Structures are given as structure tokens and as C-alpha cells.
Amino acid sequence: MSITTLPRRAFATVYAVALLGIVAVALTMSGALLARELSRTGHAIDDAQLRVLLRHAADLTPSLAKPPQLAPPTPVSIPLPPDLTSSGYRLTLSFSTPPTSALLTATSPQGKLQQRLTLSPTGKILSAELQPQTPQPHTSSAR
Q1: Which member of 7, 39, 114, 126 has the greatest number of CB atoms within 10 A?
Q2: DSSP string spanning 71-139?
Q3: 3-state SS assignment for residue 126
Q4: What does the pLDDT read at residue 29?
């Protein structure tokens, strides 16, 4: 009685192709994770910059609201350093009528962050409420 064995044709080729497939999937997954982390880091940096701008505007708010009856009725653009302005950052402050609250808006190319300040009759900040960040809509140049 003889035992017949099946020939092992192209075993090494099939094994090599399978390994290449596994490596390709691993590289694709690693690339996707890296891209996501880079995007998240960029958003964190932008968010931190917007928070610093809001803090700067909050420090200026009491001086702009004194005396309260002379608070500007229209939004005030707060000047920023040239490198931030050229990068697309803006900072505005608008008071309610009468000035019992102020809305600070920090805008960047990636989004907008707002903070509402409650003011005392003397213009001091009583409370601050950070509102959720709103992303800027992406503009498409495709026609």
C-alpha cells in the first residue's frame, strides 16, 4: 500500500503573497492612525491658541466696560500681533445693552470659540461660560 502525497507547488509564493498582504494592511492602518493623531494635535494647538486669546480678551473687558454706560454698542475688534492676524486669527468683543454681559469671540481658520462673561454694574467679571467650539465650514474650490 502506497501513500500518495500531494505536491507542494508554489507554497513559498503563496506564503510570500500572504505576508505581503499582512504587511500592507498593517502599514495602511499605521498611516491612518498617524494621520488622525496629527490632525488631533493640530486641533489641540488651535484650541489652546483660541483659549489664550479668550483669556487675553477677558483681561481687557473690564477696562472697556468702564464706565458701563460708555461700553461700545457694536462689536470691538481687539488688535492681535501681526503673526496671529496673518494666520487668520481674530478676536472680537461685544457687549449687551445695558452692558451686563459680554461675548468674546476668538476665530481661527479651523474654528471659532466663544465665551460669555457676566459683568457687575462696575464692569467687573462675575462669571465666565465657555461655549462649545464650532468648526469653520470647509470651502470647496471645485466647480
Answers
A1: 114
A2: S-SS-EEPP--HHHHHTT-EEEEEE-SSSSEEEEEEE-SSEEEEEEEEE-TTS-EEEEEEPPPEEPPPP
A3: strand
A4: 95
